[in-house]
Amino acid sequence: MEIGGLAAALSIWQSKVAGAGQAAQQGQPPLVRQDASALEASVIYHSNSEDPVDRGDFDVYQKTGRPASNYATRAEPVVLAALGAVQTSLASAYADFQKTLTASDPDLAEKHFGFSVGPDGRLVAVNAGSLNQDQIQRLETALNASSRLVNAANSFARLSMEFVAASPVYEYGKFHLDTDNYASTIDLGRALGVGAQSGQDRFNGQWDIQLWRNGEKRYDGWEKLVDGQWADAPEYQPQSVVAYR
Q: Which pTM was predicted?
């Protein structure tokens, strides 16, 4: 397998999310909306705006908040820039790994597989259905023999977790991404464009697109302001947004 389209994939992702977080940093006003099934107006409250007061003449909702993160949460553009640099290093380390694998285990180098970061920081094979158990063990031994690849992959994983933790819950922040579910969510090989046959393949392989399709939406619910306290509102379904105020 050869790495292809890394620059194109990275450029697409950077241009798409370069503005992420600006609304949260600048302070986004409440979103006033009218439910199709209700006569009373509702307000979607953004947690960085002024605290609302429950006056009783409308219902106030907000997205379920994220708990404190184990990861530092710098501004999204800062994390994004770091991700771009680390992804370039990761691609270089993987290219060197492929050369070594071709020389030592040519039968594995010809196979289709992905890789990711496991809970203990070791690299694991993913999307490797064409490999038997013995081949998977040999592949994972080879992956982890490259300290450069291991370090770059772990750096990328930590930064992508930080990016998610820093993102608002109405964007990437709705997802829960940590060391326990990273390997089942993100294939770093696909994120590098390995095996991509077209521009669409490269786009679909970007790590944030994988997150959007495979990620755990743990913080995608709503809360309602009741007597000055936020309470879960699983029955709430936003509809008919009419305007930003």
A: 0.71
